[in-house]
Inverse folding.
């Protein structure tokens, strides 16, 4: 079935589950099918019954955002159903006002159980908001950076000091994915002032970012290889994977090394450094959130000056 056919099927099924009384008393109740008729849906949405019929038959293929919004309201769709409707119609799902920084308890628990893997969690703007001790031990303690410095795009495109190096091909893929993610974020969060400010500043200070932004480059995160130059244990090459948390636009970045390799052994040694960083942070920071062990994660909410 084509996407347009799937849209029509979904609309028909959603229409069938709405009680006819939602559109007011019909002229004749005898012999009618359950659910709203196209005429009744037209009354609720202000659209023509003919157009709605063509939508369900797949003959009208490009409904506008305004049409989709009216349909979602009339059909009383849930948030997930509304998102599905927009995606079926080839439109970006309805946006929310601001990039969320909330990390669900399930993600925090996951971090706490990945003691042997350096893991950092970023929001849709690529602000690093949560990390575990081994992440800090491997790439440097993010708590020592200003809020703006904990944004991956700002850190990379403005040439801030970093322990990580790339080959030209690795760097090109990484940059394309970052820029594509930020462009997607502006679609999902069009009224987020901090996101707009970040992008404006990056375009102003980074010729490289500005060129990629204007090119409308497309990119996605795949399993990549990074070389980390650690001041105590020397260089180690690790794999890097980026995972997206459904429903909250978080990016979980994890570094790993194949078992039995020298890099894997060095990561185990870094666990000791990670524990030391956590101990220092515990002496300086407020108590961890209720129910979360102090050693599970590091968390620094970003401020508006990024």
């Amino acid at each position: 079935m084509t996407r347009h056919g799937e849209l029509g099927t979904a609309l028909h099924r959603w229409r069938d589950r709405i009680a006819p009384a939602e559109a007011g008393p019909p002229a004749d109740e005898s012999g009618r099918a359950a659910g709203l008729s196209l005429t009744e849906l037209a009354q609720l949405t202000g659209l023509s019954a003919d157009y709605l019929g063509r939508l369900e038959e797949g003959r009208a293929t490009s409904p506008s955002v305004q049409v989709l919004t009216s349909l979602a309201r009339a059909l009383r769709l849930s948030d997930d159903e509304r998102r599905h409707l927009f995606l079926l119609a080839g439109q970006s799902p309805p946006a929310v006002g601001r990039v969320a920084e909330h990390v669900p308890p399930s993600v925090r628990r996951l971090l706490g159980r990945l003691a042997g893997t350096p893991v950092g969690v970023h929001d849709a703007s690529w602000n690093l908001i949560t990390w575990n001790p081994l992440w800090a031990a491997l790439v440097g303690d993010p708590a020592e950076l200003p809020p703006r410095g904990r944004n991956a795009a700002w850190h990379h495109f403005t040439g801030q000091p970093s322990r990580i190096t790339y080959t030209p091909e690795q760097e090109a893929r990484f940059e394309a994915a970052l820029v594509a993610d930020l462009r997607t974020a502006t679609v999902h969060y069009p009224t987020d002032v901090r996101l707009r400010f970040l992008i404006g500043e990056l375009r102003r200070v980074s010729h490289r970012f500005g060129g990629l932004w204007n090119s409308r480059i497309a990119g996605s995160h795949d399993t990549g290889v990074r070389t980390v130059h650690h001041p105590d244990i020397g260089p180690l090459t690790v794999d890097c994977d980026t995972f997206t948390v459904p429903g909250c636009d978080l990016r979980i970045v994890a570094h790993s090394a194949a078992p039995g390799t020298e890099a894997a052994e060095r990561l185990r040694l870094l666990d000791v450094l990670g524990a030391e960083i956590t101990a220092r942070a515990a002496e300086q920071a407020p108590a961890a959130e209720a129910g979360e062990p102090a050693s599970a994660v590091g968390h620094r909410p970003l401020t508006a000056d990024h």
Summary: Residues 262-284 form the longest helix (23 residues). Confidence is low (pLDDT under 50) at residues 287-297, 299-306. Residues 3-88 form a domain with the 434 Repressor (Amino-terminal Domain) fold (CATH 1.10.260.40).
